[in-house]
Specification:
With 118 residues, this protein is mainly α. 70% of the residues lie in helices and 0% in strands.
Length: 118
């Protein structure tokens, strides 16, 4: 004959586990919402780039130099530097690595370095 334990202590432990699972679930959902908000913020910043800045942005995250970008866009290296500076300001980053990281997080640049169209 099997004896079932359904004492007060067992019930209290079950309630604690349920509450703990609920809290962990809430944290997970909050983290997910925070991440979604961050991704939306990054997409908003990209959307604020002018068409020329977006072209420069796409070439920067592909790893092109200012000189290569200038040749591709038929403008001077100095002009590319000015566009690049505004891109960095609008994207709120200080380094090229940060810029590439943001682009990868929102799917603008894949791991292979190819630009994806949206």
């Amino acid at each position: 004959m099997e004896v079932r334990r359904t004492g007060l202590l067992d019930q209290a432990g079950g309630k604690r586990r349920t509450a703990s699972r609920r809290r962990n679930g809430n944290r997970h959902h909050q983290a997910s919402r925070d991440q979604q908000g961050t991704l939306c913020s990054i997409r908003d910043r990209i959307a604020k780039l002018t068409p020329r800045e977006r072209q420069v942005f796409d070439l920067i995250i592909r790893g092109k130099t200012n000189k290569q970008i200038g040749l591709a866009l038929d403008c001077t290296e100095r002009t590319v530097k000015a566009h690049r500076h505004r891109v960095m300001e609008k994207m709120e980053v200080r380094t090229l690595a940060e810029l590439v990281s943001l682009a990868e997080r929102v799917g603008v640049a894949s791991a292979t370095g190819q630009i994806e169209k949206h």
